[in-house]
Write a structure and sequence with these properties.
By secondary structure, the chain is mostly helical. It has helices spanning 31-58, 72-81, 85-92, 97-100, 102-122, 125-143, 151-156, 158-177, 182-201, 203-208, 217-234, 244-251, 253-273, 281-314, and strands at 2-6, 11-14, 325-329, 336-340. The chain has one domain. It is built from 14 helices and four strands. The chain has a four-stranded antiparallel sheet with strand order 2-1-4-3.
């Protein structure tokens, strides 16, 4: 997905395929460029993380050793590099926390693997809605107890994780092609906020009502998030300055996600050493968020972003920041706009 920003004041979200043609036909998606962009963003940090985790495993550092029951180091590396950490854990049990976090990356990578192929297969935007809607419908079934008896696979399955990604794609397609009135946008924003508050603040109530058991709790959370995205994108909302740390945290989410375990484990061990004072839990939580954000920023600036830019430059898809910048014509007679992938 991409964000298109005019040199004037207009801003709108576009699907990735519209980079390649004014009409936005999915059939014109550049497969080679798509995979290069994803590799440049994902692979450098993932590979160095796997190297670090392998070293910690070989050194027998507590909390980082992959047990023989899970297949050992070689099996874990194979799963990480072939996008099925989630499947390995569903079959053999949980890996150490530093490996376990890669289950969701496996889901994303498989989606990225097949999404451009689906664009080529379905060729037109309205036909692309079919597989995306299928993923949205199947997601709750994959997470429900009735259809999935394996508790690990209920949380970590491909279908159980792809419906939220598919909803994001549908949101991008919708915003690119439709303009809502201010009244409708206010309604969408309010409903989205209510869904988020309910999902995040009353999760136990959701389980009592059976939403968790039926796999609908995560669907509600994803729908609420997408509604907020629609309202923010079309109302051109600009975050106030005091929210910039949160924006930065979102920009570094990949780096924070892959490295936060080191912070969490370190602070937890400190918490145990000092006698597990429960009054210190809020401070521990805030410290974990701050330190994980700082570590993610340092990793992004010092390694993943430079590697991202270097790879894109080498392949001819050079970018100025996190995404490659492509110019396109908004409409006849209008100046060119920039698209950040």
């Amino acid at each position: 997905m991409i964000i298109a920003v005019n040199k004037g004041t207009t801003r709108r979200f576009l699907p990735k395929e519209e980079c390649h043609r004014h009409e936005g036909s999915p059939a014109r998606v550049n497969l080679r460029e798509f995979y290069q962009l994803r590799f440049a963003r994902i692979a450098p940090l993932l590979l160095i993380l796997l190297a670090i985790l392998s070293g910690l495993h070989l050194a027998q550092v507590k909390g980082f050793v992959v047990s023989p029951k899970a297949g050992g180091l070689g099996r874990a590396l194979l799963a990480a590099l072939t996008f099925h950490i989630n499947l390995l854990e569903a079959r053999r049990g949980y890996l150490p926390a530093s490996w376990d976090i890669m289950w969701s990356l496996s889901v994303e990578e498989v989606f990225y693997l097949f999404f451009p192929l689906a664009c080529r297969l379905f060729r037109r935007g309205r036909f692309l809605l079919i597989p995306l809607l299928v993923l949205v419908v199947l997601g709750p079934f994959a997470r429900s107890r009735a259809f999935n008896p394996n508790p690990v696979w209920r949380e970590y399955s491909y279908l159980g994780g792809m419906d939220a990604i598919a909803l994001g794609c549908l949101t991008s397609l919708f915003v690119a092609r439709h303009r809502l009135t201010p009244t409708v946008l206010r309604t969408v924003s309010a409903l989205g906020t209510l869904l988020l508050v309910f999902s995040l603040g009353f999760s136990l109530r959701a389980y009592i009502w059976g939403l968790g058991r039926n796999g609908l709790n995560m669907t509600i959370l994803a729908v609420g998030t997408c509604m907020i995205i629609v309202a923010v994108a079309q109302r051109q909302w600009q975050a106030p300055s005091f929210l910039k740390p949160l924006l930065k945290l979102g920009q570094r989410s990949y780096e924070v996600y892959l490295t936060h375990v080191f912070v969490v484990l370190g602070l937890f061990n400190l918490f145990v050493v000092v006698g597990k004072p429960m009054k210190a839990v809020p401070v521990l939580f805030i410290a974990a968020v701050l330190l994980a954000g700082i570590l993610g920023e340092l990793v992004a600036r010092g390694y993943s972003e430079p590697m991202n830019r270097r790879l894109r430059k080498r392949w001819g898809v050079e970018s100025k920041s996190l995404g490659s910048v492509i110019e396109y014509d908004e409409a006849p007679g209008q100046e060119k706009s920039q698209i950040a992938v």
